[in-house]
């Protein structure tokens, strides 16, 4: 389960960190095929976690606690919760702000 969360975080980080042209369909397909759980969800809330609570996060990035509403479970070994929460590290923009996810 932890591996799938890490992969999901990696996929989210790839999608946010790189321009759309830099993340290929093949990259996302490879991550999706390797994951035991694939979910389509809509971000409901993204909260920035204070720097003092996130040791080890590289400079120029911020850790967010993202809450998402499940729209569909594409692949899952069992039931999926209607709301999901996960951590993701995203790069800050030129003004020092995280990307707008909601």
Q: Helix count, per DSSP?
A: 2
Shape: globular
Strand content: 25-35%
| Overall number of strands | 3
The overall pLDDT average reads 83
Q: Can you tell me the residue ranges where pLDDT is under 50 for at least 5 consecutive residues?
A: 1-6
Calculate the terminal CA-CA distance, rounded to whole Å. Answer: 26 Å
Structural class: alpha+beta
| Strand order of the biggest β-sheet | 1-2-3
Compressed to H and E, one letter per element, the order equals: HHEEE
SSE layout:
Layout: H1 2-17, H2 25-34, E1 38-48, E2 61-75, E3 83-91
Antiparallel strand pairs: 1-2, 2-3
Structural notes for this entry:
It is a single chain. The chain has helices spanning 2-17, 25-34; strands spanning 38-48, 61-75, 83-91. The chain has 102 residues and is of the alpha+beta class. Strands 1-2-3 form a 3-stranded antiparallel sheet. Helix 1 (2-17) runs antiparallel to helix 2 (25-34). The chain is globular. Mean pLDDT is 83; it is low at 1-6.
Which short descriptors sum up this protein?
2 helices; 102 residues; disordered N terminus; three-stranded antiparallel sheet; single chain
A few lines on this structure:
With 102 residues, the protein is of the alpha+beta class. The chain contains 2 helices and 3 strands, in the order ααβββ.
């Amino acid at each position: 389960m932890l591996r799938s969360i890490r992969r999901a975080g990696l996929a989210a980080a790839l999608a946010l960190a790189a321009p759309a042209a830099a993340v290929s369909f093949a990259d996302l397909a490879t991550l999706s095929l390797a994951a035991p759980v694939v979910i389509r969800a809509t971000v409901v809330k993204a909260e920035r976690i204070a720097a003092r609570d996130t040791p080890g996060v590289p400079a120029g990035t911020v850790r967010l606690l993202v809450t998402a509403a499940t729209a569909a479970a594409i692949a899952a070994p069992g039931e999926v919760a209607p709301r999901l929460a996960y951590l993701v590290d995203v790069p800050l923009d030129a003004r020092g702000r995280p990307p707008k996810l909601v």
